[in-house]
Amino acid sequence: MHMLVPPSMQTLSMRIASSYFSALILIACVFAPSVRSETWPTWRGQAGDNHAASGNQVPENWDLTSGKNIVWKTAIPGRGHSSPVVTDDAIFLTTADNEKKTQSLLKLDRESGKLIGETVLHRNGLPERIHPSNSHASPTPAFDGQHLFVCFHTNDSIVLSKVTPEGQIDWQKKVCDFKPDQFQFGYGASPVIEDNVVIVAAEYDGAGCGLYGLDRETGKQVWKAPRPINLSFSSPIVATVGGTRQLFLAGASTINSYDPADGKLLWSIDESTDAICGTVVWDDRNVFISGGYPGKGTWCVSGDGTKVRVWDNRVKCYEQSLLRFGDHLLALDDNGIGHCIDANDGESVWKKRLFDGKVSASPLLVADRIYTASEDGGVVVISTNTEKCEILAENQTGNSIFASPVVVDNRLYLRPAVGFGQDRQEYLVAIGRSAAGPPK
């Protein structure tokens, strides 16, 4: 038997059911985990290995003039060599303006590329002299999910700033003096975050030389690891090798491992050379570094504390870091020659000239492709084929590139400059699927 419900009661029942259903949707939205975009929170990415997250695909070819595969292109004030940091909804980039004598953190809208904020962190503190291939904004910031940590060489010191994504400065702390005497080449090491500690390297020929751990909340010094009095530029990196979480730093003719929690030296081996710019890379057993000055080479040592030199060769990557992919390394040397090296024994698998000019940017792995850039603005895409060098594409992108590229959510971000001298203009460029169709 069916009960007949008056129309008014039917309407009331429908309203109640609709309200109940809406409430369920609201509760589900509140308590369901939020969908987050990919991010690139620090120098060399989430894992510190300069690998794009799996599944990313970006074009092999693009053109600034025609706009092919250019999602957006934003003019950047000043100059810098730092890589972009990509958060959920924004991109952050450091820059220095030599005319205004400022050092700033820039904020760009992630979707449109529009410059939406600039926080001036320092005024009138630019070093009088730096290397012509360096900039006053070379370290890449680090993002912990809530704040950005930004290092600058200013007023003869290294200063770390904690800044909100909205541009509010929570604190600024002088890490140490930084007054190079023999070689006034400037500064370039990026900070790294491990748990509640922000780690900053400051290596020069002076009393403040050291590796520093600062409290992420307060900026107070938690620990200091002494370093040899020696000018070097390598960024520290934290990784798990041999089952142990370790902080790695190379330079002063050593490769060193520290406990990132307290800065205590775990092991040290007398390999590498005096000045190192690149960052240590690793696999599950060994660590690798290339440099430098005055000696040149690439070194592989055990990462388990046994202090064994596994192999070395004479390939030199001074400013740029190595890239490990599988059981191989790509070493893009100072003269623009790419070397595919067997990571197990250091033997050359293949080598090929990729650029006629010099290289500063570090190579980037995206799926089965490696993106490399030169100081004269060339970008060459090669396959991860370890049997031969397979060049997939060549793209002239402006007149110079010093910053290392990053890839997030199927977009490749490059920081080229167009023009020279007074006409030089830097850009941040997002490369991805264009209106003309899928990446080619």
UniProtKB/TrEMBL annotation:
<dbReference type="Pfam" id="PF13360">
    <property type="entry name" value="PQQ_2"/>
</dbReference>
<feature type="domain" description="Pyrrolo-quinoline quinone repeat">
    <location>
        <begin position="326"/>
        <end position="386"/>
    </location>
</feature>
<dbReference type="InterPro" id="IPR015943">
    <property type="entry name" value="WD40/YVTN_repeat-like_dom_sf"/>
</dbReference>
<dbReference type="InterPro" id="IPR011047">
    <property type="entry name" value="Quinoprotein_ADH-like_sf"/>
</dbReference>
<protein>
    <submittedName>
        <fullName>Outer membrane biogenesis protein BamB</fullName>
    </submittedName>
</protein>
<dbReference type="InterPro" id="IPR018391">
    <property type="entry name" value="PQQ_b-propeller_rpt"/>
</dbReference>
<dbReference type="InterPro" id="IPR002372">
    <property type="entry name" value="PQQ_rpt_dom"/>
</dbReference>
<feature type="domain" description="Pyrrolo-quinoline quinone repeat">
    <location>
        <begin position="103"/>
        <end position="313"/>
    </location>
</feature>
